[in-house]
Design brief:
The structure is a homodimer.
Chain A lengths: L4 E6 L12 E6 L8 E10 L4 H4 L17 E11 L9 E7 L3 E5 L4 E2 L16 H14 L6 E4 L5 H12 L3 E6 L2 H10 L4 E4 L6 H8 L4 E6 L3 H7 L3 E9 L13 E3 L3 H4 L4 E4 L9 H14 L6 E5 L4 H10 L5 E5 L3
Parallel strand pairs in A: 8-9, 8-11, 9-10, 11-12, 12-14, 15-16
Antiparallel strand pairs in A: 1-2, 3-4, 3-6, 3-16, 4-5, 5-7
C-alpha cells in the first residue's frame, strides 16, 4: 500500500481540446476520514464526457471546477479506514471521489458494491451513473414503444450501448452510430442492435439511415450532436421523441457551434426534443439499480469496459473519450 | 352580384420569396354546388404563412399544391345556394375554400358564423384556425403555469397576439417580439403584454430579454425562428417548454438554413422543444371555440385584423405576411 497520495488537479482551463497542460498530478499525504467518512483506496476511477463542462468557467448543471481543484468523479474502491457504522475496512464501495490513490467519501453518499453481481468497473458504467442515464433517459424521455425504430449516437459508449439494449428489450428496432468496425460489430453481434453505422467510414449518413431505418425514426437518443444528428432529424416520424443526453461533438467548441437549423424540421412531425439530466430521477435510482442488476445478472444486458492502467494515465483516458478510444465504459485502474 | 367567378391559381413554384409570378388570376363560371354542398359568396379570405409550405414540391403536413391548382384557404361568406339541409341561402358560414369570389364548401366541413359574437374577419383569426392554434399550442405544448415568463415571437400576428393574451390570463409574465413600434404599443397598451421588443430597431435581443425577462424564460412560443429564437434559447429556465408553431423567418429559404446549434443548450435546463400542428387537436375544437368565443365576448381577449381590399390583391396580402405588413390577422375582403 502506498503511504502517500497522488491526486490530479485542474491546472488550467482548456481552450478547445484539453491537453496535458489541463492536468497536474500532485503528491501529498493520505487524508484522514472525519466522522461519518470513509477512507477509500481507489480501485477504478471513472472519466466521463460531462466533465468537460466542469472545465468551463460558466454556470451549468455541474459546478465548474476552480483552477487548482482536485478533479472529481465516480470511483470504486476498498474501504481502508471507516469513521461510520455503515461500513468497515475491507468493504467495497462506490461513490463520488477525487482522481486519487486514496479518496474520502461520506458514508451517506457511498453505496456498497457486490463483485458477485458484476466486476468492479461495471459499477462505474452499466450499474453506475451511465447505466442510470440510459435507463431514465430512454424510458422517460425517449418513451420507446414496441415496433418503434430507435437510433442511438455514441452507441458503443457506456450510455449508448445500454440505451440500445434496453430499446431492444422493449421490442424496438435499434440502430447505432459508432466510430469503428470493431464497435459496430460489437453492437450487432453481441448487443443485438439491428443495424450499426460506422460514422467514420460512411460518407452519406442519410442514405445509411434510409437502409437501416427504412420506416423512419421514432426515438433518437443523442449523445453526440453534429453531422449524425443533422442526418437524423429530417427522418423523424410523426410524434418522434429526441432525448438530448450529450453533445460530445461540441464539448470542445469554444464558440457556439453552427449547423443546420432543426426547429423548422420539428413542425411537420410534431417531434419533441428534450434535454435530460439523470440527477432529476434521483428518487428512483433504487428501482433503476434493481432493474439494471437484474438485467445484467440474466444476461439481458451486456456490458464492456475499456481499462486504462494507472492513475498517471487518467488524463489520457479522459482525452480518449473525445477521440472515441473507448468501447463501452472508459475507466482507469488505479490499484489492484 | 358577379355572374362570373375569379379564382387565384398557383402559377409557378417560387424560388425563394414568392412573387406575382407565383399567382395567376383566372375568370370562369360560377360553380354549381352538388348534393351536400354550399355555394358561398366569399366575404373574407384568409392568407396564412403555412401556405408557403404548400408551394413546395415536397411531402409535409399540408399537401403540396400542384402548379395550376386553385389556391385554397379559410373563407367566411354567405350561402347563396344550398344543396344541404343544414344551411340555407343567406346563412353566414366559414370553411376551407378557394381564393375566389365564389367557392363551394361541403356543408359537413362548414361552420356557422354569428356576427353578433364577432365581426366576420375574426372567424378567420382569433375564432378560426389561428385562435385554435394559439389555444392548443400554448396550453398543451407550452403548458404555462402562473408566474412563468412566456416569450412569444411574431407576437403581433394572429396566433402570437392570442398566445400572449391567453398566457396573461394564466397569470404569466408575457414578453412579445414584434416588428414595429405600432405593434409593440398594441401589445403592451391594449393586449396587456408586460413587455414588447421591436426586433427591427433593437440591436441586442439578448440584452433586451435580460431586461424584459429578468427571471429567465419558462415558455417560448415560436412563430418566427432565426435570430430571435437564437437569443431566447440561452435564457431558457430549467424545465422550459418551447412550442414550435411557425418559422416564418425560414419559409422562403431554398436550402436548409444554418444557425447556432440549439441541442447543446437544452441539456442543462432539460428544456423541451416540440413542434405543433393544430389539426392534432381536432376532437377538441368545439371546446376551444366555446372558450375563445367566451373570452372574446367578455373582452378578455382582444383581436385585430388587417384587411386588404379586393380579391385582386390577395397575393399582396399573402406576400405582406413575410414583411410583417399585418397587425393581427391578415385577411382579404372579397365582397361586402
Amino acid at each position: 500500500m502506498r503511504d502517500s497520495n497522488r491526486t490530479w488537479h485542474f491546472a488550467a482551463r482548456p481552450d478547445g481540446e484539453p491537453t496535458m497542460d489541463t492536468f497536474d498530478l500532485r503528491e501529498g499525504d493520505v487524508p484522514d476520514p472525519q466522522f461519518g467518512q470513509l477512507l477509500v483506496r481507489v480501485r477504478y476511477l471513472s472519466v466521463d464526457p460531462y466533465m468537460r463542462g466542469r472545465m468551463r468557467d460558466s454556470e451549468s448543471y455541474a459546478e465548474p471546477w476552480a483552477v487548482g481543484d482536485p478533479l472529481q468523479g465516480g470511483v470504486v474502491g476498498e474501504v481502508v479506514a471507516s469513521e461510520s457504522d455503515e461500513y468497515e475496512a475491507g468493504d467495497l464501495v462506490t461513490g463520488r471521489g477525487t482522481w486519487s490513490d486514496y479518496t474520502v467519501l461520506d458514508a451517506d453518499d457511498a453505496a456498497p458494491v457486490d463483485p458477485d453481481v458484476a466486476d468492479l468497473p461495471a459499477y462505474l458504467g452499466i450499474l453506475g451513473m451511465p447505466g442510470r442515464t440510459a435507463y431514465f433517459g430512454l424510458l422517460n424521455v425517449g418513451d420507446p414503444r414496441p415496433g418503434d425504430t430507435v437510433v442511438v449516437s455514441g452507441a458503443a459508449g457506456a450510455v449508448g450501448s445500454t440505451v440500445g439494449q434496453i430499446a431492444g428489450l422493449n421490442g424496438c428496432r435499434v440502430v447505432g452510430f459508432a466510430g469503428s468496425d470493431e464497435k459496430t460489430a460489437w453492437l450487432t453481434d453481441d448487443l443485438g442492435f439491428d443495424a450499426a453505422i460506422n460514422y467514420k467510414t460512411t460518407d452519406d449518413y442519410g442514405a445509411a439511415l434510409d437502409d437501416a431505418a427504412p420506416e423512419g425514426i421514432d426515438v433518437y437518443f443523442d449523445n453526440v450532436g453534429g453531422p449524425i444528428t443533422d442526418a437524423v432529424f429530417p427522418k423523424l416520424n410523426v410524434d418522434a421523441r429526441v432525448a438530448v443526453c450529450g453533445q460530445i461533438a461540441h464539448y470542445n467548441d469554444e464558440s457556439v457551434p453552427t449547423g443546420p437549423r432543426k426547429l423548422p424540421q420539428l413542425i411537420a412531425p410534431r417531434a419533441k426534443v428534450q434535454g435530460l439530466l439523470v440527477s432529476d430521477y434521483a428518487t428512483r435510482f433504487g428501482a433503476a439499480k434493481a432493474q439494471l442488476e437484474s438485467w445484467v445478472a440474466s444476461g439481458d444486458l451486456q456490458h464492456r469496459e475499456t481499462v486504462v492502467e494507472g492513475l498517471e494515465h487518467a488524463p489520457d483516458a479522459f482525452l480518449g473519450l473525445f477521440s472515441g478510444e473507448n468501447i463501452g465504459k472508459q475507466v482507469v485502474r488505479v490499484s489492484e
